[in-house]
Amino acid sequence: MKNRTSGCKYIVVTGGVLSGLGKGIAAASIGNLLSGRLKVVSVKCDGYLNTDPGTMNPIEHGEVFVLDDGGEVDMDFGHYERFMGITTKFHWNLTMGKVFKNILEKERRGDYLGKTVQFIPHVTDSIKHWFFDIAKAEEADVMLIEVGGTVGDLENQFYLEAIRQLKRDVGDENIIYIHLTYVPIPEGVNEQKSKPTQMSVRMLNEKGIDPDVVIGRCPEMLTPPIKEKIGSYCNIPASHVISGPDVKTVYEIPLIYEKEGLPAILHSALGIYSPPDLRQWEGWVRNIKKNLVNPTRTVTIALCGKYTALEDSYASVVEALVHSGAHLDVRVNLKWVDTSKVATVEDAATLLDGSDGVIVPGGFGKRGIEGKMRVIQHAREKGLPYLGICYGMQLAVVEFARNVCGLQGANTTEVREEGVVVDHPVIDILPGQKNVLQKGGTMRLGGHDVQIKPGSRAYSIYGDQAVIRERFRHRYEVNPDYIERLEAKGLVFSGKHPEENIMQVMELPGHKYFMGSQFHPELTSSLRNPSPLFYNLVKAALE
Ligand code: GLN
User: Fold this and answer.
1) What is the pLDDT of residues 490-519, one digit of tens each?
2) What are the E-state strand segments in 68-125?
């Protein structure tokens, strides 16, 4: 196979020893360091057979990240977008499900007529073509390829074989292999140990891949002797062994890699030049770190939901608060409130005691929603800053309909499926969703324009922009039949779809800060550009 993408350089990131070492953050940080002058695209290879993680349980798999093009992907794409300032695409996420689907479709079409379709070369070729097609379509200077899981995982073997072959296809000078491993300091031994790294690199060698750079995740910076030792086992200079210490904030990782000399290694290995400019970034990281230890100011935001068991399922919400805190120079404490435990408004008041602001994030189904509405009622009545995201906006509308408009039995028709009687369907299924039977990838997904009402609070917090673009993931909406009744009692729909009658932002004038968005503002927030809805929530919480 020839390299059909002349000009593109490939950086492959694999992981060893353990999962959960932060391979996504490592890849995103490498992308961050190179993005100054080069077009970097990030590709992720997942071993599972789902087409996308949209149908998986967020408790097991973490947050579903929604892309502008409507693709549902995993949290790593959130890291790529936030660290690299790029808009990624669904096609940049390979899953074994997608790879096999593609091959089976080709087989039925007759593309392999007369041939036996085999794992090698057909699966590996298909993976490589996927890379080349992206590189070409995007006119990428650099492609970062993150291989999911760890080297030993059976389900990732075809990706490893494909990336092994890649070197021959694109040429030595156009590819670099980076391996992230674990360097433990066992208790009692109190010394950095290299054995797990040695074994993991051996395993990679057996697959025919010799890493050019090893990043050692460790509780602390790697010592010169351990770098020397790992280097000698891996046949690389000690300077190519990079520290990946535990950090207080993940945004510190690009700064550490830079100090460890990683950009220079990449530049000389790949014949590229794109010096990072991290001055502003460093300032925000300094704020985050300072406020963790010795905060100038502190606010507490209550995050009220049902998946509170796993903080990863709200990863982007948490990040968006970090971004706002960094820019406002304030420490944002999170308080996780499980709404299935809130039985009365008094419970809500007790649980929210000490909180300066409230977020009800996205969600599905009936469990915990009455509790969420009590939390919302408390925030609305007591002037506590509130941000409702997606379900959090819909439930704020239901609460308002019930308690302000007097519409007893108001609810979202989403709960009818679970046997709840809905007298006033103030939130109802989107017309386009009525006949949808398939569950995977069929919600109203992805980026849509939002027309903002001049003079509203939304208008001022979005910097007087008449049209913004945000990302959606929902099946239900504010029922147009109830808009007049809701607005008559003071609720304002300040963001709508430019053509369709879909309410996309809601606010309550006169309240300190009571905002709802049908979209997920957390998905477009970054350290460079914090989401205005979060930034102003934290600001209101400070006052
Ligand atoms: N369950 C609601 C809907 O489908 C909200 C979805 C969400 O919060 N992402 O419209």
Assistant:
1) 999 999 999 999 999 999 999 999 999 999
2) 72-73, 93-95
